[in-house]
């Protein structure tokens, strides 16, 4: 009985808390009313005279109910039930009619336990409450020693579980297992003897199949609606804000940025890629600046000395993903720039310096930075540079970023070039 009381308390607290829940929700476009009809078996226990017991299972049981959901998790239902209880094998014949009416709280365990993450057709309800019952017995009607003068009136408490299978948005196939415990039952189920009439009396188990019909103008019923809470919406907003961050400040959000390391002031396209229409490895805005400040002399753009200045200035970088030694596809333009310089000055010597971010051990990052430099060298050789023109150095961690935010570590995972 303690278990029953505990379950009723849990369901009751859930109903009481629904007001808190609804203040956190944002959508009421779902149906809340339903009607339920069930039929099945009954098993009565405990309150029998010596030598009597009921058939297992005994048919039949029927119940009908109306349910209202405050929100997708909690609701109330009013239902009535009928049980026909009769004798078991080798027991004197009796027929008892048991009726009940109950008001019950309903908890939608399918929503509480997030069934929507793996199914949209299977649900589970828990219900529990209390009500009024009465019973009569037609086996002793007219008999001299009958115990029933009229109905035996009593109180009941009950709990149950209802698995659901959604057939359509309007109809659900249900199963149900319910337990009913009588209070102040005066007559045994067989109708031949009195009980103490105080405290808890007989108990009834019901197992049923039935249908639930949803009422209302909306497409879905509360049983099958996932209603996000305010905290869910705050999490979504936080995720959107994170997506809209623009780490390199080029005006393109990170989640769309195909070149997340654009140089400061770079002019980029809608994908965040630095614009270089003529493909010479120099961003168009830098090229335009040179033209304007060189009195319209465009030959300076292809001048090897200028290219050398650009390389040694640190503007030309190749970037890498976390723990990766393969360059970002979007940053291989820097390698092309150095390749063009080596074609213009076939005797030049280039030092390729690899770096890693400050996360991880020194030995690991030293090796990672070396592999990054070696891979860039291999790309330059594949583009026509001589391996003898290139030397590689793994610098390890770039400690300039040691105390910086994690989002800026992307700038540390790079290869730079130096003309010797």
Automatic annotation (TrEMBL):
A GO molecular-function annotation: porin activity
Record's signal peptide: 1-19
Residue stretches spanning the membrane: none
A GO CC term attached to the entry: cell outer membrane
Alphabetic keyword roster: Cell outer membrane, Ion transport, Membrane, Porin, Signal, Transmembrane, Transmembrane beta strand, Transport
UniProt topology in membrane: Multi-pass membrane protein
Cell location: Cell outer membrane
Superkingdom, taxonomy of origin: Bacteria
Chief location category: membrane
SUPFAM superfamilies from the UniProt entry: OmpA-like, OMPA-like, TSP type-3 repeat
A GO BP annotation: monoatomic ion transport
Gene3D superfamilies with a match to the protein in the record: 2.40.160.20, OmpA-like domain
OmpA-like domain segment(s): 307-420
PANTHER family xrefs: LIPOPROTEIN YIAD-RELATED, STATOR ELEMENT OF FLAGELLAR MOTOR COMPLEX
Protein name: OmpA family protein
Source species: Empedobacter falsenii
């Amino acid at each position: 009985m303690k278990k029953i009381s505990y379950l009723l308390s849990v369901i009751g607290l859930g109903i009481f808390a629904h007001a808190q829940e609804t203040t956190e929700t944002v959508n009421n476009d779902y149906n809340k009313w339903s009607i339920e009809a069930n039929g099945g078996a009954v098993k009565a226990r405990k309150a029998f005279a010596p030598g009597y017991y009921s058939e297992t299972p005994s048919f039949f049981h029927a119940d009908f109910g109306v349910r209202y959901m405050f929100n997708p998790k909690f609701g109330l239902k009013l239902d009535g039930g009928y049980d026909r209880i009769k004798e078991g094998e080798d027991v004197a014949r009796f027929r008892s009619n048991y009726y009940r009416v109950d008001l019950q709280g309903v908890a939608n365990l399918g929503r509480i336990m997030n069934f929507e993450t793996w199914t949209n057709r299977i649900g589970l309800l828990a219900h529990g409450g209390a009500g009024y019952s009465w019973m009569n017995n037609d086996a002793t009607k007219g008999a001299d020693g009958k115990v029933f003068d009229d109905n035996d009136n009593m109180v009941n408490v009950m709990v149950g579980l209802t698995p659901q299978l959604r057939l359509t948005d309007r109809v659900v196939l249900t199963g149900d297992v319910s337990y009913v415990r009588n209070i102040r039952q005066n007559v045994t189920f067989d109708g031949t003897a009195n009980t103490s009439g105080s405290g808890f009396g007989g108990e009834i188990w019901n197992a049923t199949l039935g249908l639930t019909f949803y009422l209302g103008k909306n497409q879905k019923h509360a049983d099958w609606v996932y209603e996000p809470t305010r905290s869910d919406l705050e999490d979504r907003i936080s995720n959107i804000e994170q997506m809209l961050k623009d780490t390199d400040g080029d005006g393109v959000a990170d989640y769309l940025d195909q070149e997340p390391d654009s140089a400061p002031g770079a002019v980029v396209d809608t994908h965040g890629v630095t614009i270089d229409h003529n493909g010479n490895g120099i961003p168009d805005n830098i090229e335009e600046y040179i033209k304007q400040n060189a009195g319209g002399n465009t030959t300076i753009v292809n001048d090897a000395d200028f290219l050398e200045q650009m390389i040694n200035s640190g503007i030309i970088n190749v970037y890498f993903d976390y723990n990766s030694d393969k360059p970002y596809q979007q940053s291989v333009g820097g390698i092309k720039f150095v390749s063009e310089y080596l074609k213009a000055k076939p005797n030049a010597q280039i030092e390729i310096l690899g770096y890693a971010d400050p996360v991880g051990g020194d030995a690991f990052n030293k090796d990672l930075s070396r592999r990054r430099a070696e891979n860039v060298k291999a790309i330059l050789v594949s583009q026509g540079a001589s391996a003898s023109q290139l030397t590689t150095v793994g610098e390890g961690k770039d400690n300039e970023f040691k105390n910086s935010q994690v989002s800026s570590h992307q700038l540390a995972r790079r290869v730079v070039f130096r003309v010797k």
